[in-house]
Predict the 3D structure of the following.
Amino acid sequence: VTGPESPRSPWSRPVVGLLLAVFCSSAAVMAGITALGKQVFDATGEELALGILGLVEFLPAALLVLVTGTVADRFERRRIVSAAFSGEALFAVGLAVYAASGSVRVVPIYLLVLGFGACRAFGAPAIRSMPADIVPPEQMPWLVARFSIMWQIAAVVGPVAGGFLYAVSPTGPYVLMAALFLVAVVAINLVGSPVTVAETTAPPPGPNRLSDAVEGLRFIRRHPVDVPRLDQPAVGQVVLHRRAHTGGGHHSAIAQDLEMARDQRLGKLQGIGQFSDVARPVRQLVQDEDAGGL
């Protein structure tokens, strides 16, 4: 089996499809997070309810972290991402229907968000590993930079669109979410069926063992220098995707799950703190507030 061929132009159909999918899915998530926070707070008026919402958003990624990385390595990532986006679209429709009902109970919202988070837990590490599947190593920095740019643009557009639509109608942001995820499903299928890491670097077929799942954690423990760099998507993904190309399939996917969990935890700051140029002032601002400096 040969690796991916180098296209004449970097803007090949797989690249365009991947970047469009990243933008649409990220914008959908950001719009949904914005609307969910407003809806839950309007229904309860309690900050604790917002804290529970954040926990429910993060919980699937934390509980499934040892499973989703292995799945991303052993199955075709395009299909994993497509299925995850389809599931997220269905849960977005469920949120729209519930918002239209006018109910102020938050438990159904938590359950829908839990299912949404489970889909995202499987989709995120798979899509973050896909650049290594569709471009040769020398094009990785070029693609990863644009991957991060799409995420940054979505981090701005998503909350603005979600907040505006929620002011018009509580169902609006969730309808937008579902539409964006459906576009993302179409876009990710433009990538085609690339050679996956599992086909080239995974262990021979055999029974799944727990050691496969925890190997990524062992790798991070042996290489602690790389862990802080995962706060920077452009840098972290270059490191992880290059490992994926050089035999670090399980290491790559599971480590990216940990990166995803960290992304969700920092999502309350709209993800700005993950980028090196903005992270320092934002984190300093938070530290100053905690110390009573503002």
Summary: DSSP finds 13 helices and no strands in the chain. The first helix runs from residue 13 to 44. Confidence is low (pLDDT under 50) at residues 195-206, 225-286. The CA atoms of residues 40 and 46 lie 8 Å apart.
